[in-house]
Amino acid sequence: MVQADNHSPSTIGSDAPAKKHDAIYFAIAMAALALWWLARKHASLLPLWAPWEFSWFEFLSAWLTIYWYIRGVAAVSAVGRPSLLRQISFFIGMLVIYAVLETHFEYLAEHQFFFNRIQHVAMHHIGPLLIALSWPGAEIKRGMPAWFRRLVEHRIPASIVHVLQQPVLAAFLFVGSFFFWLIPSIHFHAMIDPRLFALMNWTMVIDGILYWCLVLDPRSSPPARVSFGGRAALAVVVMFPQIIGGALITFSSRDLYSFYDLCGRIYPNLGAHYDQTVGGLITWIPPAMMSVVALLLVLNAMRLSEERSLANEPHDETTPVIDASQWTG
């Protein structure tokens, strides 16, 4: 039997990639430490794109996820990589969420109701939808350290996600979490308590990603959790409660969110009623539009799935076949 050579080409220099990854982790940690120190000691020196209130959890979650995605994409051949459009969708989605959480935009969201609504729509709808559209799970897991990947794939977090993505519950949580934090008394306490404020923001991000990943799963069922018809229904059913909720805020004749008067509005001349009306419209129109966009994306995914089935599976010419491309474009 020929013994394996410990100095074979496959093992020579194997420490180099590990050292490179360690250096990147170190760089991310040092950047986080520098921003944390500057935000605490020299906040006036930070530019608009820097954090208003630095959060270790938000910063590391964003940049480690981005790094793992890049590493996961680079680990496979060009044929197995996601398309350029999917990659762009991922990075834009991450950028949208990061921009409203870890920049000076957060200050605007704390001092003007309609900016707060822009923040939540970005965290709960636009950013997560773009991330789900990129379908990045496999690439992110591939780029993770092995120990962290085992933790993520453990049966406990997997079971929690499985429950949260049960279709009826997922739709209820998607609408419910969005409007729960808009109950005036709860919104007031969330805005004055930093811990509740952070919880509010992260429920928006996590729930948005879980919901849109359920709806925009590009695979047929199975292995997808819900059929294409069910996903189309999920995209539509959440639209109507959001329209109603946004309309109630828009047409309310009284000031529902007194916090912004107490903390001082960025634009005090606009007035509480105008601020609330604009915020209600932002709560009403963009989320409804995202549901329409999601419906179109689901129909397109169904069309692509049917085209793959037609291309890969032989069929009897006498059997009628419905081609989705004839009616989805």
Description:
The structure is a single chain. The protein has about 325 residues and is mainly α. About 70% of the residues lie in helices and about 0% in strands. The protein contains 16 helices and no strands. The chain has helices spanning about 15-40, 55-75, 85-100, 105-110, 115-135, 135-145, 145-150, 155-165, 165-180, 185-190, 195-215, 230-235, 240-250, 260-265, 270-310, 325-329. Helix 2 (about 55-75) packs antiparallel against helix 3, helix 5 (about 115-135) runs parallel beside helix 11 (about 195-215) and helix 5 runs parallel beside helix 15. Residues about 1-15 and about 320-329 have low confidence and may be disordered.
Write the layout of secondary structure elements.
Layout: H1 15-41, H2 56-74, H3 84-101, H4 105-111, H5 113-134, H6 137-143, H7 146-152, H8 155-164, H9 167-180, H10 184-192, H11 194-215, H12 228-237, H13 239-250, H14 259-263, H15 272-312, H16 325-328
Helix pairs in contact: 1-2, 2-3, 2-6, 3-5, 4-5, 5-11, 5-15, 9-11, 10-11, 12-15, 13-15
Helical coverage, percent range: over 70%
Shape: globular
Gyration radius (Cα, Å) is: 23 Å
The main pleated sheet reads as: none
pLDDT averaged over residues: 87
Q: Could you tell me the strand content as a percent range?
A: under 5%
* End-to-end Cα distance: 61 Å
